[in-house]
Write a structure and sequence with these properties.
four-stranded mixed sheet, two-stranded antiparallel ribbon, 17 helices
């Protein structure tokens, strides 16, 4: 145990003292937010506005077809149709000509069939669908008016049914759409975090083992410590590095949620009354939403979420890092690792992509089995925990994962003990199986 502690301590201090670790740990949340903002900017930068001339022979769309930030409709007299059609290809600033025929005998199907949009450049699919939606909305209103229904009745017909759901098991708390959205988002973030960091830190262990093996440094180390102690020291050292990063990020996230919850609430209380107040409240919709989101996050059983997240990441990481350490000891270069790393990546991918169905049915059979089977539980249980998981399922999953982790350490140690001192021979799956059985 003393040697394991010393190796763990050395691996941990070597990693955390690096400037790259400090910078990445402190700036990673900021970089993630900046990256999301950059992606949003790219989508925004690719947006464009289109201008269409409209020849409305039916008279239904004049005054009803409204322009917006993305599409501008310019109505022109029907006498100009031929001239606009012939000069459309040479027009600048006009993307197309929308021609709507006359409405005969209230035959809206014939109107739709004969309407056409002439364009002089390629337009986006979203732009075309927006035009279709605008026309369909007006046609729908006209059809309903023909039935003798008033405008208020039309609005009432389009009103969605707001179903108030209440979970009688979960302390009688109502499950709103915002609650479900936040839980789904949190589930995906935690799931991806575990998936990515198990792979990232597992590969780091494998490369560290492979580097020491190729440099023959391991021959000197093995003369002082046992192969098992060296392997466990490396795994535990990198584990503590990952837990340190997660602890800092979790603390920053909780403090950020508390700030949003209290800071924006205080800002709202200072807003004066009257019409000016209503206008200011509309301007603070984003802040109010952020405050509601932070309130929902803090209202969750986040101590349990954090506990389950750390436990399953820790056990899942040790489980797969043992596998990565065994792979690193069994090969001589990174090229040869590709045929074996699939055994570690495929189960994690099954757990991750299978967990997408958990969003729609957290208590379904697939979610249950993925969160119980040790190969997929480190990812699947993390995806389920924001929605609430019975205590006995968490306990059973942890128990099975602990047993499987100990078994994987035992198997990896047998492979590591033989493979770490072998050079020049490409280990096959058959030879590795012999090492395990010996």
């Amino acid at each position: 145990m003393k040697n394991i502690f010393l190796i763990t301590r050395r691996e941990y201090l070597t990693q955390v003292k690096k400037k790259s670790f400090v910078i990445l740990t402190l700036l990673a949340p900021v970089l993630m937010i900046a990256f999301a903002a950059f992606i949003a900017f790219l989508f925004k930068a690719n947006e464009s506005s289109s201008t269409f001339n409209v020849v409305d022979k039916s008279g239904l769309f004049i005054g009803n077809l409204k322009s917006d930030a993305s599409i501008k409709y310019v109505f022109v007299p029907r006498e100009n149709e031929k001239a606009l059609t012939s000069t459309l290809k040479d027009m600048d600033g006009i993307e197309g000509l929308l021609i709507i025929p006359e409405l005969k005998d209230n035959n809206f199907d014939e109107l739709e069939k004969n309407s056409k949009l002439l364009i002089n450049k390629k337009i986006g699919f979203e732009t075309k669908m927006s035009v279709v939606a605008d026309l369909s909305r007006i046609i729908k209103q006209e059809k309903i008016k023909k039935l003798g229904i008033s405008e208020d009745q039309i609005i009432n017909l389009d009103k969605n049914f707001d179903l108030n759901t209440q979970n009688v098991v979960d302390n009688n708390k109502a499950d709103s759409d915002l609650d479900f959205g936040i839980k789904s988002g949190l589930s995906m973030v935690l799931m991806y975090a575990v998936f990515m960091f198990i792979i990232i830190y597992g590969v780091r262990v494998m490369r560290s083992v492979l580097e020491e093996k190729n440099n023959r440094v391991v021959e000197i180390i093995i003369s002082s410590v046992k192969p098992f102690e060296l392997m466990m020291g490396k795994i535990l050292g990198v584990t503590l590095v990952a837990l340190t990063q997660f602890s800092i990020w979790i603390t920053m996230s909780v403090l950020g949620a508390i700030f949003l919850n209290t800071g924006f609430s205080a800002m709202q209380k200072q807003i004066p009354g009257g019409e000016q107040s209503a206008e200011m409240i509309e301007k603070f919709d984003i802040q109010q939403t952020a405050s509601e989101v932070s309130h929902i996050l803090l209202d969750m059983n986040y101590p349990l979420i954090i506990f389950v997240f750390i436990i399953f990441f820790l056990l899942g990481y040790i489980f797969y890092s043992s596998m990565y350490a065994a792979i690193g000891s069994a090969v001589d270069n990174e090229t040869e690792t590709q045929q074996f790393t699939l055994f570690a990546i495929i189960p994690l991918m099954i757990g991750m992509y299978g967990s997408f169905t958990i969003m729609n049915n957290p208590e379904g059979p697939l979610g249950f089995w993925l969160s119980i089977i040790p190969f997929t539980s480190p990812v699947a249980m993390i995806a389920r925990i924001p929605f609430g998981v019975p205590g006995w399922q968490i306990a059973l999953s942890i128990f099975l994962l602990v047993i499987s982790t100990l078994l994987m350490i035992y198997i990896a140690a047998k492979v590591y003990r033989v493979g770490i001192l072998m050079y020049g021979n490409k280990a096959s799956a058959k030879e590795i199986w012999k090492w395990i059985r010996s």
